[in-house]
Amino acid sequence: MLFKKSASLKKVYYGSFLALIVIPITVVFLVSISVLRIMMFDSAITNVKSAQDSMMSMLEEDVNQSSLQLAHFVYVNSGELIELAAETDTDEQIERNRQIRKLEEAFQVAIAPEQDIILGQFYMKDGRVTSVKDDVSIPMNEIKSSEWYQSALEKKDVVSVGTYDTGRMSPTYSRQRKWEFIIVAALAPDITVDRTGKVEMVTLFYRSGIAALIRDYERDKRIGHTAILDGEGNVIYQGHASEDAAWYIDQLGIREKGVYTQKVKNYEDSGESTEKYTFVVSSIPVIGWKIVNYMPANMLTEDFSRLAIVMLSVILVLFILFYCFSWYFLKNILNPVHRVIEGMEGVQGGNLDFHIEPEGQSEIRKMVHSFNRMVRILKSSIEETRRAEEMKHEAEIKALQSQINPHFLVNALNSIRFMAQVSKFDGIRKMAEALIKIVSCSFRSNISFYTLREEVEVLDSYLYLMKIRYSDGFETEYQIEQECLNCLVPRLILQPLVENSVVHGFNGEDMGLLKISARQENGKLILSVWDNGTGMSEEEIQEIYRGKVRSRDDNSSIGLENVIARLKLNYGGDCEIFIDSTVGQYTEIMLKMPIEEKCNEEKSIDRR
After folding, report:
1. Are 532 and 472 in contact (CB under 8 A)?
2. What is the b/e burial string over 399-408, where b = at least 16 CB atoms within 10 angstroms of the residue's CB?
3. Which helix (H) or strand (E) covers residue 364, if one does?
4. Does residue 150 surpass a pLDDT of 90?
5. For a 10 Å CB count at each end of the chain, is N or C smaller?
6. What is the spatial distance between Cα 366 and Cα 369, in angstroms, rounded to a whole number?
7. Rounded CA separation 6/300 (Å)
8. What's the pLDDT score for residue 482?
9. 86-95, 152-161, 424-433, 541-550: which has the highest mean pLDDT?
10. CA distance 103 to 128
11. Integer Cα distance of 180 and 238 in angstroms
12. Ramachandran angles phi, psi of 429, nearest 5°
């Protein structure tokens, strides 16, 4: 698991955000950037190689074209041009000029419509040179000592090729465009071709189209600078924008085909600063030359750098949006939830005055409102419970205050009963026994419930005393179902009701009737006390329901209110009290309570 269950919600959120969003996006970005850089580098190299393929194709074509043209000049019409050139080798200037004109006419016919041939030259064995179309500005000794000239002398009737870069020197007197690439094709005819034996070498200067092609490609900086190397690795052409080609290529040191990236010293920097350069080397198989393109390494990935900046900007914008979302999420969801948790901890610690200001989305606000309402209900419930306990305690105190010392009272009654028994006063003895039974029941402080059977026995003792007091001024009827006798009821629950009927209901003029009933109905035990006494008004009944506001010394009707209070304290909402009365006719008080039966002789229930 990523986090422990005990970690805070905010910590889990930030950790999850970092682990599931920031890190994966960053890793994907870095991997994508690396792959993209490689792909763009490879694409740039592919473009360079494609350009080199076009250059190599043109160079091969130009070399072949110049060689074919030279062979055509030499062998056309059975060596006609060679014979005309040999006739120009004379000391007679007029004759020489006439022969040169004839040679030029034949040369023009031979090269038409080829416009890239700059000039043709015929080198005589006696040292004379006949030039057609233009003259060479290079000293003769330099030409004759050149590699291509010596190679042609060694291999008769085989075309040798040389080159000149007009960016470094112009091989002709006529104005040539700078940075042109001139191909020189040379052939030394043998005796079968030159029957006169005068011509040593025939050369043809040819303007290659490679310079224009290179200029077109070099407009794209990713192609870099282009240089052409001969078979020995010497730079024979470096273009109009790459006069420093030899400087960089010499530092490369590698002449094989391939792609190389290495640090080289800067050409224009007099210090020792270096920069990474990429070299792309391709070989021209037929003529043995090489084409080298070189450029700063970062030039190949220049578009990548811009794209990387754009991607990085997008990632940063996404992170900013994620941050805004996180701020909103924390402010409207996590923070309110965190405050609810703090409130729960406060309530757990007993602080019921805790209140949370609702904020955030509707669901969170509803949760906060529910929490505040729950705290208020809990506080109110605790207050009600406390007040109920206080009322119960107060009722018990009032009951205790209305009692006298049980041992003293019981002992005194036992003494009276004993004296009455000795004196043969059975009436006094029976009254004392009945009173002892009532008082003994009242002082069972450790028993709150007993059976209805026991309640009726105590009630019989009380009614015996009341009949003596009121001179048998009322009659009593019991209507108690047999299955109700074992039901548990709060002790002395009927005596206050019967007392209320006897004391307040009967006026002593007419014979009173008291009915006490008990039955079971719908899972409830129903107790009823009915009398045909003076009755109660509706106002008196409502005052009993509400609870009479009484002074400290007012104890009237306390028994009935005590019964109602004890039932509510013991049963809460599971009990019901009904008072039905008509003034001058009757009063009935009915109690409904849950049925609970005694399991054994010793079982009793104290609901406090």
Report:
1. no
2. eeeeeeeeee
3. helix 362-401
4. yes
5. N
6. 5
7. 53
8. 92
9. 152-161
10. 15
11. 10
12. -65, -45
Cα separation, 417 vs 426, whole angstroms: 9
Beta-carbon neighbour count of residue 320 at 10 Å? Answer: 10
Q: Are 203 and 186 in contact (CB under 8 A)?
A: yes
Tell me the H-state helices in 245-351: 245-252, 297-300, 302-329, 335-348
- Please report the DSSP string for 545-606 in residue order: HH-----TT--TTHHHHHHHHHHHHHHGGG-EEEEEEETTTEEEEEEEEE--B--STT----
Q: Please give the Cα distance from 120 to 107 (Å, whole number).
A: 8
Gap between the Cα atoms of 581 and 121, Å rounded:
153
Tokens, residue 47: 């473009």
Task: Judge whether 307 and 36 are in contact, CB under 8 Å.
Answer: yes
Give the lowest-confidence range in 196-205, 278-287, 336-345, 380-389. 336-345
How many angstroms separate the CA atoms of 369 and 148, rounded? 101
**Residue 519 scores a pLDDT above 90:** yes
| CA–CA dist 422, 188 (Å, integer) | 179
In which element (H, E) is residue 544 found?
Answer: helix 538-546
**Would you give the DSSP letter of residue 502?**
I
Q: Closest by alpha carbon to 560, among 529, 532, 604?
A: 529
The amino acid at 442: S
Let me know: does 237 contact 227? Beta carbons within 8 Å.
yes
Residue 117: pLDDT band (50, 70, 90) is: confident
**Residues forming CATH 3.30.565.10 domain(s) in the chain:** 473-594
Q: pLDDT category, 175, cuts 50, 70, 90?
A: low
pLDDT at site 407: 44
CATH number of 473-594: 3.30.565.10
* Cβ–Cβ under 8 Å, residues 457 and 494: no
> How much is the pLDDT for 72?
84
The residue assigned the tokens 């006298």 is 404
Range from 72-81, 117-126, 435-444, 455-464 carrying the lowest mean pLDDT: 435-444
d(CA 429, CA 557): 30
CB 504 within 8 A of CB 467: no
pLDDT value of position 606: 37
| Distance (Å, whole) CA 473 – CA 460 | 16
Give the pLDDT mean for 483-511. Answer: 83
CA–centroid distance for 185 within its chain: 72
Rounded to an integer, what distance in angstroms lies between the CA atom of residue 511 and that of residue 473?
5
